Amino acid sequence: MPGPVNRRAALPGASELFRPTRESRQAEPTPEPSAGSGEPPGDGQKPAHTGRVRHTQKITVYFSDDELIALEDANLSLRRSHGIRVDRGRIVRVAVARAIADLDANGADSFLVSELSEEQ
Question: Which of 14, 52, 75, 112 makes the best surface tag, with the fewest CB within 10 Å?
Fold first, then answer.
C-alpha cells in the first residue's frame, strides 16, 4: 500500500517573490531581436527595433465612446492598410509628440492653440 499523498501545492519561495524587477540604471539594456526575424543578432547586423519603449510614467486619459471607436478604427486601419501593428498608447504618444512639436515650431499658429482656443 502506498504511503500518504502530499496534497500541498508547491509555492514559490521568498527569493522568487521578492526578486528585483528593474535592471540597474548603469547596465545597458540588451536589444532583443524582433519577433519573426528568424535570424539571431550577429554578423555585425543590428537587430530591428520593435518600437517598444519602457515607460516610467503613467497618466489616465478618458475618451468618449466615439473617440475610442475612432482610435480603434485608426489602429485597425494602420494594421489592415499599412501593416503597422501598434497599441493604442503608441498612437496617442505619437499624436501628443506631434502636437507638442507643432506648438514649439508654430506657437500661436499651431494646431493645438487653434483647437484649444475654440473650446474656451
Answer: 14
